[in-house]
Amino acid sequence: MADSKGRPIIRPREVEAERILKRREWLLGLAEDPDKEEKKEKKDKEKEKKDKEKEKKDKEKDIKKEKERRKSRSPERDRKSDRDRDDRKSSRKHRESSRERTKERKRSSSRDRKKRRSRERDDRSRRRRSHSRSRRRSRSSSSEDLGGYVPRQPHKELSRSARHAVSRSLEREAKPESPAAPPAPAVDAAALAAQQMAQAQAWILQQQAAQQAAAMGSKKQREVYVGNLAPGLVSSEMLKTLFDSAIRAAYPNAAPGLPPVVAINMAADSKYCFVEFRSEEMATAAIQLNKLDLCGQPLNIARPQGYIDPAFAPPLGGMAATGAAMSMGAGLLPGGGAAAATAAPDQVLVLDHMVGGQEELADEIELVEIKEDLAAECAKHGAVVGVRIPTAAGSPDRGKAFVYFEAKESAANAFRAINGRHFDGRVVIASYTSSAHYDNLSS
């Protein structure tokens, strides 16, 4: 006996004897064929092998048909499908980048709001601490140290000689023939003098605090807005160096050893910032650098929102001269552009940054619309005589808007409402000029 591969099958003797017995019975017709199961198994294996070969051939035929079908397709249709696939990829990338930009803008605005709230909380806490200190000074007891509080000295035991001197003085006071009662008017005069001294010291402290507050000004008064920055090119250190060098040239003896710039708050997109100076005069002088070219772009320098013009602010404790000192700072830097504008209110209001650029100046229809809008806005504050926007090339007033009011009060009201406002993405800077300057404007 051999297996399917022709190898002899070796069986134990008992198995072989039993197989021979079954085969004899099969030959005699008494039992079934003993090799029936092996034959059936062999037949099943052959059938399975044939099925696999048939399946393999069918698969090869399908692959061959697919290749022939692809070869028969037109190149134009292939290119179109490739373009559609590329368009889908680009649109998906565009949507993803748009979502990222939206998230970044939300994060940036959230950070700006947090910084602004933090600054406001710091300002409020500083004001509360300053007010609390001033109240404690005014309520403290009088002394020789300008109204400061002097704690009570602990009781000290008298020496032997001092106790003897006190006992003798008490014995002299006890004698009827030598009364030593102090006169009452002298005690009243001493108390009155001490009270007057305390009031004088409190007044001196209040005057010093008022002078210091008027000299330094609030943060808004000492800040300037700097816009139109080149993102990625202009940094905080570059701006600090620029303003420090310019203000030191204008104020060589102011705050020796200290830089004029206190802090620079840069926006998240690096397109604008707020520069804080040590005094309001320095901030006024820094506005002279408006339109200075930095990294290929002209700077937009103006007062921030919330700024109060000293010319219209009420005087504080005899410090009314502070507004005049700040208006004098306009001519400190060489080459300043505010020589034609006057610090005192006048009938003509000058508005810079109202016109965007050369295209708007060349478009007459756009200029007419700007004049009409400006006249309608200024008419809310008083009667307007006329509006002019010079467009002559080479004129120092080119691109500025001049609004002529009937009354100075109307011009002052419009100044307070318009100065520092945003118009078409630009910060408007307002100033005054004379009616003679308005009449001599060249269109």
Topology of this structure?
Blueprint: H1 13-28, H2 36-72, H3 75-139, H4 160-174, H5 184-216, E1 223-227, H6 236-250, E2 261-266, E3 273-277, H7 280-286, E4 293-294, E5 297-298, E6 300-302, H8 321-328, E7 348-352, H9 358-362, H10 364-378, E8 384-388, E9 401-405, H11 408-418, E10 422-423, E11 426-427, E12 429-433, H12 435-439
Antiparallel strand pairs: 1-3, 1-6, 2-3, 4-5, 7-9, 7-12, 8-9, 10-11
Count up the helices.
Answer: 12
Shape: elongated
**Residue share in β-strands:** 5-15%
Q: Tell me about the biggest sheet?
A: 4 strands, antiparallel
Question: Which strand order spans the largest sheet, edge to edge or round the barrel?
Answer: 2-3-1-6
Distance between the termini: 124 Å
Residue ranges: pLDDT <50 for 5 or more in a row? Answer: 139-156, 177-181, 314-343
Provide mean pLDDT, rounded: 75
> How helical, in percent, are the residues?
40-55%
The assigned structural class equals: alpha+beta
Rg over alpha carbons: 49 Å
Q: Strand tally, please?
A: 12
Order of helices and strands: HHHHHEHEEHEEEHEHHEEHEEEH
